[in-house]
Amino acid sequence: MSIVKRLTPYSGLKVLISGGAAGIGEVIAAAYLETGAKVHVCDVSEQAVLAFRERYPQALATQADVSNPAEVKRVFELQREWVNGLDVLINNAGIAGPTTGIEKITEDEWEQSININLNAQYRFAHHAVPLLAESAHAHIIHISSVAGRLGYAWRTPYAATKWAIIGLMKSLAAELGDRDIRVNALLPGIIEGPRQDRVIRDRAKQLGISEPEMLQKTLNKISLGRMTPPDDVAAMALFLCSPAAQNITGQAISIDGNVEYL
């Protein structure tokens, strides 16, 4: 097989993406659909799910709260009914969590961040592995963050979960290697889009500066001086599902223009 062909993702993959009806998840879903993959997304937002179904009628979209174990189990029941298998799990669902000092973060805010950002990744991996064990191209891709390799003041619940995801990924890569299930993590940086706009707004309010000032301070943290488009994250996810990546596992891969600090 030529090098160029090895860079092409396997065709017909069965892909499940949590939190996949909007944001980075939707961009990743659209990229896999372009390759002919059978894509199933779940999302907590009914509105997002309905809109996703209209845009991508060839895909399956399920409303589910990833913090609810019963609803996650139902997602996998629907996966089996739909395509009776799984090749790729994209563990993507997550929330930003509070933007404030540790002394002001409530127990509920902390627990919600842990439950959605970290516990849900366990739940999806837990149900996915028996299906992935039957796949010839099995892969789990955890979506972490640049906040999974750097400290992040005023965003401690978010950063704590994203660091924990790296530990989960590294452990699963070692645990599942003898079953030929690859496990990696993507660490998106400062991603263009509405979510980052909200983060900049909240951060500006926390620091008592204007949003344009906060935007410039944000860009100053990046070696390349620019945000990362979500398409770049999707492209890396596709590469990891190509023959060229068959020996890549246990890796935390940043897509961030080299964010130097947060």
Automatic annotation (TrEMBL):
GO molecular function, one term: oxidoreductase activity, acting on the CH-OH group of donors, NAD or NADP as acceptor
Residue spans crossing the bilayer: none
Signal sequence interval, chain numbering: none
InterPro entries linked: NAD(P)-bd_dom_sf, Sc_DH/Rdtase_CS, SDR_fam
Superkingdom assignment: Bacteria
Pfam families the record matches: adh_short_C2 (PF13561)
PANTHER family xrefs: SHORT-CHAIN DEHYDROGENASES/REDUCTASES FAMILY MEMBER
Family note: Belongs to the short-chain dehydrogenases/reductases (SDR) family.
Name of this chain's protein: SDR family oxidoreductase
Organism name: Pseudomonas helleri
High-level lineage: Bacteria, Pseudomonadati, Pseudomonadota, Gammaproteobacteria, Pseudomonadales
